[in-house]
Amino acid sequence: MSEAWLDERALRYLDRFDASAAHLKRVLRVAVQRITDDRDARARADERIDALVARLQQSGVVDDIRFAGTSARGLRSRGSSTRMIRHRLRAKGVAESDVDAALDTIRDEGSELDAAREFVRRKRLGPHRPAHERKARIRRDLAALARAGFDRDVARRALDADGVDDEPVD
Q: pTM for this structure?
């Protein structure tokens, strides 16, 4: 677990995936754990990892703001709710201020309703189901949208977008 090994491992990971600083540290620490059980070696590797990630941040290779913005735009284009985007960015170790900045940028690019409609289209819910299944599956579709982080009003509007009857659901 030399410094060169960590450098190579980090750059190989970053070549395939964009990552936040916290996530890259996690990935490298897991790689070290797979190699050794020695606590002293792990502690030395942790110090090297912190220094390596700091160096990568200074050079601009690792940039949490860029990562958050890119991830937020990608998630939104695939129909993710603001809640889900916030959750996923936090899970990747992005600071709350960077998450808020990323969410501010995507608010200009599309609404929550647009994202819900994309989710409905991708999952073939509501108006994208065969006509004979729509009414019977409305609760299931609303539940799927709720689990994806959309509020009830947005979910109803997304499902009703293409002329589906608006039946009361309790």
A: 0.77
